[in-house]
From TrEMBL, chains A, B:
Domain spans labelled Pyruvate carboxyltransferase: 7-273
Keywords assigned by UniProt, alphabetized: Lyase, Metal-binding
Protein's recorded name: hydroxymethylglutaryl-CoA lyase
E.C. numbers: 4.1.3.4
Any one GO molecular-function label of the UniProt entry: metal ion binding
Extent of the signal sequence: none
Taxonomic lineage of the native organism: Bacteria, Pseudomonadati, Pseudomonadota, Alphaproteobacteria, Hyphomicrobiales
């Protein structure tokens, strides 16, 4: 097994990360964070969400956020769960949209208040409409290795949701271990099953570090050819199902691992660390990234000190 | 690449962990911790060190610690850097001793105040004498993937130190990434080079989580047949070269990964979490283990709450 020469990182901190933080950042600060992440070399960034600001106040004014970011070699994606969200995304000039399905029936009902089938029917309309406007759609699948309500999830269910999302026109599916319970072998086997129905370059992996398994899972998936990895700067977001535990894998930790293995990412670790330090300062929290913690300790500084770049 | 059916965990928390903690625990508490770890199913435990108590006060009275532990299906190992340490180890009834060499010349001089060659000459005497008493000796090698003073370390240097340790009669070499800088590919390549001169069952890996790479490194090494892994309950020890950063990989995180991949360890995760919670309570610190943090968060309790078993 050999690793890909180059891996694309999809930075999800400004959406998946920030929407799970207690502090709500202004559109200006969110735009500044996105700009700093772009300057660090991240060219795919999830920038916000067009959902009800009552339900997710952290993502309010995503349109203003997008308007403030200069887009140069940068694809900004937003969550658009329905036709209304899509209209707002199109009008805000999103480069890409994302829809969010689950591999667990119970999680789907509790999280987006409909069955998997109902969600897929709705997304089919959203994706078709987006494509009419030349906007690509990404499909997320949550709970691919376990569900907080149902426990273990059979990979067959992941395969069928992935097939449905790709058939309706999603250019990529992101397989999310939402509660971070998976270990490398399972993660790899699940990806291999999905890879039987989807080309590998349409498969992204999205791991959470709740049980510390994220990097090992990523490595195991890279070994079978996955080359798109989601991550969140400074590990922003935490775990909604275990407050206090780690959440999204930190982009710094992913970039460090890839850089040390000579896998190209196009990302400057120093600039990324500085962007993460900026976010943590605004959120008044410490980074969950082990790399950020180690650099801060080595520099004799606190986690919130900018570390370079 | 397939994983080993069973992995032996060498628990280093009571020595490598505790010697790097600010709080010094009494021999009674250390013995209690060792007993709890043994009750969790860990059968190889590094229990202390026969070095100067002035240099390492945390390890003073290792003899008293050993005397307090009931040994049933349990191998207790101690660091014995010279013949005097060995005599003390033999008289305390250690089941196994360990010597501590480096793959970096500068690290050897700064850490144990002699060249690699001088250290190996001394250890040859210690190991030979231990074997005369029927006591097995383990050889540690530090800085196998990087040195805080010299930077990158060529694997060829690891190979020659490993060969020397095995030739002098060590039953096993533990390859330590002391500052946690290595990533999975390098870790695996280094192990593969050592495996050309040593049988795989004589090679243990010892990773630090400073940059979050430890579990990924372990997974990559298991894939090439390594089946002995060092780890420290609750991630005790931290990183002496970056205070505030993570240190030894946490045993809980290793056991979680192996258990989820159906690799046998003989360890009860619940009992292990309880032992880690006990240690953290005594040390007045939070566990560095992501698994311990997630379980504590899930239980709605604080990190120091015993979590089961």
């Amino acid at each position: 097994m050999s690793l890909p020469v180059r891996v694309s990182i999809v930075e999800v901190g400004p959406r998946d990360g920030l929407q799970n933080e207690k502090v709500t950042l202004s559109p200006q600060i969110r735009a500044e964070l996105i700009s700093r992440l772009a300057a660090a070399g991240l060219s795919r960034i999830e920038a916000g969400s067009f959902v009800s600001p009552k339900a997710v106040p952290q993502m309010a004014h995503t349109d203003a956020t997008l308007a403030l970011v200069v887009r140069d070699n940068l694809r900004l994606s937003v969550l658009a769960p329905n036709l209304r969200g899509l209209a707002a995304a199109l009008s805000a000039g999103a480069d890409e949209i994302a829809v969010f399905a689950a591999a667990s029936e119970t999680f789907s009902k509790r999280n987006i208040h409909c069955s998997i089938e109902e969600s897929l029917a709705r997304y089919a309309e959203v994706v078709a409409e987006a494509r009419r406007y030349g906007v690509m759609a990404r499909g997320y699948i949550s709970c691919v290795l376990g569900c907080p309500y149902e426990g273990e999830i059979d990979s067959g269910r992941v395969v069928s949701v992935a097939s449905a999302l790709l058939e309706m026109g999603c250019f990529e599916v992101s397989l999310g271990d939402t509660i971070g319970v998976g270990a490398p072998l399972q993660a790899r086997r699940m990806v291999e099953r999905v890879a039987r129905v989807a080309p590998l370059d349409k498969i992204a992996v999205h791991f959470h570090d709740t049980y510390g398994q994220a990097l090992a899972n990523i490595f195991a998936c890279l070994e079978v050819g996955v080359c798109v990895v989601d991550s969140s700067v400074a590990g922003l977001g935490g775990c909604p199902f275990a407050p206090g535990a780690a959440g999204n894998v930190a982009t710094e930790d992913v970039v460090y691992m890839l850089e040390r293995m000579d896998v190209e990412t196009g990302v400057s670790l120093d600039r990324l660390l500085a962007a993460g330090a900026f976010a943590c300062r605004e959120l008044k929290r410490a980074p969950a990234s082990r790399v950020a913690q180690a650099y801060a300790a080595r520099c004799g500084g606190r986690a919130e000190t900018p570390l370079g770049g």
